[in-house]
Write a structure and sequence with these properties.
Length: about 100
């Protein structure tokens, strides 16, 4: 199977052909680590993890060692980060 027939090739083609006026699917967006968002927002990475761990659209890769601690990797699409930022921001005061 060549690249254009592979699932990744199909995904790439769909992203390239996607209309620029429509939002990109989450898979095609840049994904940020909790540390990147923490640096940008002036928070700790642990706080960012707590904010995003149950947020829809966040990629969570988890593995647990036998009887050990749980290892969890979060990758947060830019649109999800923007949505959470809007939700946490104070709304403009209406006079």
């Amino acid at each position: 199977m060549n690249f254009s027939e592979s699932p990744i090739g199909n995904l790439y083609r769909s992203v390239v052909e996607h209309q620029s006026s429509e939002p990109l699917p989450l898979v095609a967006e840049k994904h940020l680590s909790p540390q990147e968002i923490a640096n940008s927002w002036g928070l700790s990475a642990d706080t960012v993890r707590r904010l995003f761990e149950k947020e829809p659209g966040v990629l969570v890769i988890e593995r647990q060692r036998n009887r050990g601690r749980r290892y969890r990797t979060l990758r947060i699409p830019e649109s999800v980060a923007a949505r959470v930022h809007r939700r946490l921001s104070n709304p403009d005061k209406v006079v």
